[in-house]
Amino acid sequence: MKALLYVLVVFSSLALGSCTGSKKEAKEDILVGELKVAVDESVLPILLEQKQVFESSYSNAKIVPQSLPEVAAINNLLAGNSAIAVLTRHLTEEENKDFKQRSITPRIYEVGYDAIVLIGNVDSQDTSVTIDQVVNLLKGEKSTNFTLVFDNLNSSILRYFRDMGHLAKVANTYVEAVNNSEEVLEVVSSNNNKVGLISYNQYLSLKTSFPNMDKIRILSVLNNSLATPKYVKPSQATLSTDEYPLKRTIYVLNYQPNLGLGIGFSSFLTGDRGQRILLKSGLLPATMPGREIIIRDRIN
User: What is the percent of the chain where pLDDT is above 90?
Assistant: First the structure.
């Protein structure tokens, strides 16, 4: 926490310096240079929003997203093709081994909270689902009238349920994968026996552009860990109260060995402006931005 506060102080000081017209050499700094970011494609929409605002504020900084399925994004980071990643999990001990050998200690911060949503066809009788039903289908056990459609076999979404069910592998009997989240929606919109799984971030991004939104709906998911178990749909409210059971954390993992642009971008993501972007997008910020209210004695 102290390290993050130090970063934010440095970040704020440099931002103030840029506003007062101070000159800097054209070399990489926390607000200058080009930064390749390996990003889990299921959280790409929110990263693109952050990139747009960051670059418009700091014209000498360029963020280059490398959007990939989770497995490929991590391999990209391990291969050194990027030094920073935006993922929904930390690296494992095995994955961290090479960085430890190079004495690189990551700076890892929570950016916000996303969720996994299950999408059904409006003509289907299924309006709700349980986590056990999903896990059983991944095991190859028929437990419902529908089959599952994932965006990618190497996605963080499939990995999430595999971890939840402690599955070494997934049976393909009742599972299929397409190429991206939009294709998931296309399959579900034309089949009433399919349930698609995408991120809440992807759903919010596609909500205004997907042509067949009237043919799909979000299914309620049973949360049986509550005092009174109930079926819940994802929203900022149900994420903030931990009622929606498929909530997940978005992390920024900075493996840059120096204080480069990765520090500046990480600080932006976790700072007030970055958190407001998450809030406006429909996701849940890691830190709720404050609001200033001015109270006047009288109205002029």
Answer: 84
